[in-house]
Amino acid sequence: MLRRLVEFKGIRRLPFEQYRDHVQQIYDGPAGAVLALASLISLHEPLIGHLIRGRKFDVSQRKSILDVGSGAGQILGHLLKAVDIDANFIAFDLSQGMLKRARTRMKDDRPTFISGDMMQLPFADGSFDCITCGWVIEHLPDPIPGLKEMGRVLAPGGSILILTTEDTIAGVMTSRTWKCRTYNRKRFQAACEHSGLQWKSELWFSKIHRFFRMGGILVELTRDDINAITGEDDSTPTSPADSTPDMASSR
Ligand SMILES: C[S@@+](CC[C@H](N)C(=O)[O-])C[C@H]1O[C@@H](n2cnc3c(N)ncnc32)[C@H](O)[C@@H]1O
């Protein structure tokens, strides 16, 4: 209850036409300029490296990689080190300012930097065998269009890594700082499944994170090809991320 009161709720109320301006204002501006430093101080960037190097999310055989909401390249930098030299990389972000920062930080000419909205990815169906999306989907008023788009561009047999803010005390504080929302773990799982994505495995940065249930929702998703992603059920009145019964988070 307290968490619900404290959480930043603006993003849930914004119409889809306006949320883009909201995100661009935050990330093109001073907050975006300190994002890379904040990720280092909060240990998020090194912890993602640990996850990828330790192959908890295995990218070693991947050839076609999309990093959605690349930000300052906090995940991209680790992917560039872990994946074969001949792989293709796309760094995708709504904020032109963040893409510029990522390009400067990466000092690597392999990624192609593309600006756009993850709810309308400018790629053909099944284009990527690996998609990463770290701390981005909490910026959408509703996760379903973004989840469906990632499912659409994922090739059969491919995997998606999502990291997102959970509705814990730490999560609601993050939501206030970065003007984003949080997700309840069970509801978010329901939203993924509703979008045709299978919840393959839940990940944790470390045993300590797992024990204290800290660090946010980290999940590997695959395509649920039995319930093919058609986009036909966009008429769903409310996203499962907001409508399934409240399952109190364990922290
Ligand atoms: C907190 S940063 C995450 C950066 C990085 N992925 C990481 O793991 O730290 C969120 C990024 O998502 C981008 N973003 C937010 N909404 C987006 C959308 N609808 N489409 C594409 N990028 C978006 C923002 O511009 C920002 O760069």
Annotation field: number of helices? 13
Uncertain segments:
228-237, 244-251
SSE order: HHHHHHEHEHEEHEHHEHEH
As a whole number of angstroms, the C-alpha radius of gyration is 17 Å
Order of adjacent strands in the largest pleated sheet: 3-2-1-4-5-7-6
Bound ligand species: S-adenosylmethionine
**What's the CATH H-level homologous superfamily?**
Vaccinia Virus protein VP39
Strand content: 15-25%
User: Which architecture would the CATH scheme give at its second level?
Assistant: 3-Layer(aba) Sandwich
The tally of structural domains comes to 1
Shape: globular
The counted number of beta strands is: 7
**Helix vs. strand class:** alpha/beta
- Average predicted local confidence, pLDDT: 88
Fill in the CATH topology.
Answer: Rossmann fold
User: Major sheet, described briefly?
Assistant: 7 strands, mixed
Distance between the termini: 13 Å
Q: What is the CATH class name?
A: Alpha Beta
Write the layout of secondary structure elements.
Elements: H1 2-6, H2 10-13, H3 16-28, H4 30-33, H5 35-41, H6 44-53, E1 64-68, H7 76-82, E2 88-93, H8 96-106, E3 111-115, E4 128-134, H9 144-153, E5 154-164, H10 169-178, H11 185-194, E6 197-203, H12 207-212, E7 217-223, H13 240-243
Parallel strand pairs: 1-2, 1-4, 2-3, 4-5
Antiparallel strand pairs: 5-7, 6-7
Bound molecules: S-adenosylmethionine.
